[in-house]
Amino acid sequence: MSPTELEFLFRNSIFTVMINGTPVTVGSNGAFSTTVTLSAGSNTITIVAKDSAGKTTTITRTVKYDPNPPKITAASVTPNPVDAGKTYVISVTVTDE
User: Fold this and answer.
1) Do residues 70 and 97 make contact, with C-beta atoms less than 8 angstroms apart?
2) Which residue from 64, 66, 62, 60 is spatially nearest to 19, judged by alpha carbons?
3) Phi, psi of 43 (to 5 degrees)
4) Long-range contacts of 62-65 (CB under 8 A, 24+ apart)
5) Confidence band (pLDDT; 50, 70, 90) for 55?
6) Mean pLDDT, to the nearest integer, of 73-82?
7) What is the structure's pLDDT at 59?
8) Angstrom distances, CA of residue 85 to CA of 6, 79, 80
9) 35 versus 52: which is more confidently predicted?
């Protein structure tokens, strides 16, 4: 699992914010941030904002976390060696699991 920092700024007067059911402190300027731990694969993030009149807005987003970076498995330069001022081709093979 990997923690991911979320930062937001609301322009209107927000009383409370919950992210995935956890209360988040909202600054006087409407800004808030929190850390959400992501698991490999799809993750749902739900934000519920409530104003001082008790009205709520809910936003749900699904994000995908892939902890495995792509891997370069081969690379070559043609021609090799390269002559200064000449055209050459760099070929790269990349795998992503």
Assistant:
1) no
2) 60
3) -135, 135
4) 63/38, 65/2, 65/4, 65/38, 65/39, 65/40, 65/41
5) confident
6) 88
7) 94
8) 47, 13, 14
9) 35
